[in-house]
Amino acid sequence: MSQSDPTTFRCWAEIDLAGLERNLKSIQSTLPKRIRYIAVVKADAYGHGMQQTVARLMQAGVDMFAVANVAEASTIREIGAGWPLIVLGATLKEEESQLFEYDLIPTISTVEELERLDVRATRENANLKAHMKIDTGMGRLGIWHEYANELFQAFRDASRVSLHGIYTHLASADDDPEFTRRQRKIFIETIARADWLPVESLLIHADNSAGISTFAPDSIYNAARIGLLQFGIRPYPESMLGNAETTPIFEFKSRVGITKTLPKGASISYGRTHILERESRIAIVCAGYGDGVPLQLSNRGEVIIHGQRCPILGRVTMDQTIVDVTEIDQTVASGDVVTIIGRQGDSEIRLEEFSEWADSISWEVLCSVTKRVPRIYRTAIQSG
Ligand SMILES: *Cc1c(COP(=O)(O)O)cnc(C)c1O
């Protein structure tokens, strides 16, 4: 079992693909039937691994995929044909030809982009479907809603690029319901002003994971773009939890390198930011910021060994992290499994808690588990 045998690794991530499928089904069951599920799998499927994640989502029945750029989209095309694929980022001139080669749906935010792609499509003697993006308060991609009509007109004039969908992005869906309502209202009104649009035949979407907690059943939306939630991570405070029951599918693990006893007064790690207040048993864990344990966890985070939480002492280093195992009731030995994120026995460190220690957000933490960390996959059969 060489490739997938965790017993030979110093630091690894375990990903539960059956759990991914359960999460998907649970989210889908809370959405109105007409809602198309767009699985957002940018950035290597949020660090879970594009290949395995996308293959499983294809089998499990998502309607579309969305990625950040054409390079990510081409990877999906290699996994399986046929799924509509939206590129969420701006497409550079240098990337244009791949839109045609891989049959992708670009996001268009400006008249200039649309005209450029229309010229290109004419030259290639090809047609292109596109989604128009409207900025309703995110201040990133999308045409500012007050100018949207210019772009609607340009779509009307384009000969080779057709409008396949219209979307916007919510800036504070996780913590500002009032602003979210305002964004939704602007979005709907902007579309309504272009009353000649064949709205019924377009995909209209605004919701990310946090958005669907305020999903209005009678709205004009017929699609949602779900990233974080399908990986079982809550994008919003407990109080805003929607109906979907999802569980984390990502565990981050390492092993104890050595254990040793140090006397009271000994200093720990670079910069000597921790001085032992008692004689202590410490364990040196085989993972550091070179693997994705953020420096911010220095003197702050915890790990789980033998089902019990152990505080991190001193600075996290590139390859190693020092933890206090004095209070652990069993003997801690070299090779013992250390859970950095995930469940072990009765203890659990959720990604959300870990992200707070790191002064970060779940999305960034998942993107920060480095290439040095092999991803291993549990399938339905293995997890029983
Ligand atoms: C990343 C992204 C999403 C998914 O967001 P989650 O919060 O992870 O669900 C949706 N839409 C756009 C435009 C995005 O960039």
Describe the protein:
There is one protein chain. With 384 residues, the protein is α/β, with parallel strands linked by helices. It folds into two domains: 31-231, TIM Barrel, CATH 3.20.20.10; 250-383, Lyase, Ornithine Decarboxylase, Chain A, domain 1 (Beta Barrel). The two termini are 19 Å apart. Strands 1, 11, 14, 15, 16, 17, 18, 19 and 20 form a nine-stranded mixed β-sheet that branches. Strands 2, 3, 4, 5, 6, 7, 8, 9 and 10 form a nine-stranded parallel β-sheet that branches. A two-stranded antiparallel ribbon has the order 12-13. It is built from eleven helices and 20 strands. Helix content is 27%, strand content 25%. The protein is elongated. Helix 6 (111-124) links the parallel strand 5 and strand 6. Pyridoxal-5'-phosphate (PLP) binds next to strand 10.
Integer tally of domains: 2
Oligomer: single chain
Measured distance between first and last alpha carbons: 19 Å
Largest sheet: 9 strands, mixed
Number of helices: 11
> Any idea what the CATH architecture of the largest domain is?
Alpha-Beta Barrel
What are the SSEs and their pairings?
Elements: E1 11-16, H1 17-30, E2 36-40, H2 42-46, H3 50-60, E3 64-67, H4 70-79, E4 85-87, H5 96-101, E5 105-108, H6 111-124, E6 128-135, E7 143-144, H7 148-157, E8 161-167, H8 177-193, E9 203-205, E10 223-226, E11 250-262, E12 267-268, E13 274-275, E14 280-285, E15 302-305, E16 308-311, E17 321-324, E18 337-344, E19 347-349, H9 351-357, H10 362-367, E20 375-378, H11 380-383
Parallel strand pairs: 1-20, 2-3, 2-10, 3-4, 4-5, 5-6, 6-7, 6-8, 8-9
Antiparallel strand pairs: 1-11, 11-14, 11-18, 12-13, 14-17, 15-16, 15-18, 18-19
Helix pairs in contact: 1-3
Bound molecules: pyridoxal-5'-phosphate (PLP).
The site of pyridoxal-5'-phosphate has 13 residues, from strand 10.
